[in-house]
Amino acid sequence: MTFLALGINYTTAPVSIRERLAFPAESLSDAVKDLWNQTNISEAAILSTCNRTEIYCTLQDSDASTVIDWIAQHHKISPADFQPYLYTHTDNALIRHIFRVASGLESMILGEPQILGQIKTAYHTANNAGTLGKNLGKLFQHTFSTAKKVRTDTEIGSSSVSVAFAAVQLSKQIFDDLGQQTAILIGAGETIELTARHLHQNGIKRIIIANRTYEKAHILASQFNGYAIPLSDLSQHIAETDIIVSSTASQLPILGKGLVESAIKQRKHKPMFMVDLAVPRDIEPEVAKLNDVYLYTVDDMQNIINDNLHSRKLAAEQAEEIIDTRVEHFSSWMKAQSGQSTIVDYRSHATQLQQESLNKALNALKNGTTPEAALQQLAHTLTNKLIHTPCAQLRIASENERHDLIDAARELFNLPDQL
Description:
By secondary structure, the chain is α/β, with parallel strands linked by helices. The protein has 3 domains: 2-153, Glutamyl-tRNA reductase, N-terminal domain (Beta Polymerase, domain 2); 163-304, Rossmann fold (3-Layer(aba) Sandwich); 342-412, no CATH class. Helices cover 54% and strands 14% of the residues. It has 14 helices and 10 strands. A 6-stranded parallel β-sheet has the order 7-6-5-8-9-10. The protein has a 4-stranded antiparallel β-sheet with strand order 2-3-1-4, sandwiched between helices. α5 packs across α7 (134-153).
């Protein structure tokens, strides 16, 4: 049996290849069943995200061509078109790989947590499809516990590495309780949506979305129990706002020093936190000179992110040590499984010999043999049966000068060292 991981990711393949090898969520269950039904595959699971597609399986031998041929057939693509982008991992290398992926060490954003949820989805899909067995199922369980330990024992996920998350984390340093604050988010793009999501998750009291296109603002605001305003009404709401995050494509500043200065006076100098993520800038730089205003630009956010990435890289070194240990643990479990079938077979053989000897002793008792003689006969017969085959094999080993086998037998039977 061979563990195999085969796949592509954002470092090995362009998006034009990744999208051709992706598995839509709605068809993933059928795909993994189809893969599992292929010759030579005994267990299978498929992980498919925007940044990676990976197939995990156990093979009856080490030939990966079955999986490659299946990918080509399933996606109707020539192997020559995607094979140059593939990577493969087997056995211990596979174990290390999936542990690193789940811990965020292989992600585009180091330490990002979403990948663990995606691997759990891959596991549940395969499990519900009936394509997991003892070995691959156990590997996923060890993967989850390893990723949890990395998260718990290191700081790999504690530092913000997106401008939106960094902005929200910074706001929490200025305001003790976001549940008492109002935020205006200017724009309706991906960065503003992500900022709104982080603020909502951190319990912000009120979110206002301001955008030139009111419909876009309304659609976004409705997701987070906020409300929308057209950009032309922005000046009417500045004074009631504690947090402002702006990210538009405007070529001219949207907020000037005079407007913000007036708002600060109306607020009776309550602090205002402002983040300008736009290039060109949405907020006039002179606003930073006002008292009670904390203005940060996209460059300030990037500096914070760079510092946090450095912290994550240090945490990643600790994570690698944890993974080293966990790989050894799982590898030991796998080695134990390889001997388990031998143990089961040996126990079954011994039980059979025991029953044969016992039946013979019981028959002797029925025929008038004394209990003492029957017991002696049972002990003698059972001992001879148990040692006959090992002794015969040891004689053959001796004749063939198989000293390694003889030494192994002495260790196996815990015999004293020869003088």
